[in-house]
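Hi, does anyone understand the following?
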Amino acid sequence: MKTLPIVGSVQSQRTKLLNQKPTIVVADDDPSILDAMKTILELYNFQVETIADGMVMSKLVSLRPKLLLLDICMSGVDGRDICKTLKRTATTKDIPVIMISASYDVANCISESGADDFLAKPFELQDLLSKVNKYLLN
């Protein structure tokens, strides 16, 4: 059976991603969320770094991730402000940011912060993987 070029392209991109182990940074002040997301994403062959405090900016420069999963409320630091700063900074502006929150105010979170997407807590495994793949395969 002949494979369509688009499908072949996606398959080769996935193979390339599996070989490269793209780095994803998860920033959340809840250790159980960090542990769960790290475990899940590593099972799917991603390199995962976690940040449990508001020091996202300084750590991102050295980690150079392909994707950032950023909690909105992080121990007194507003993830939306972190995202705004990331999107205004030349070295980090192209990193896709998926905001994570128990809030369902999706439109405001994305528009206020400049985030690329939103994931509501609690999230389904398939929703997490779908959003991660959306930004890593493009």
Q: What stands out?
A: Helices lie at 5-20, 31-43, 56-63, 79-88, 106-113, 125-136. Residues 87 and 96 are 9 Å apart (CA to CA). The mean pLDDT is 83.
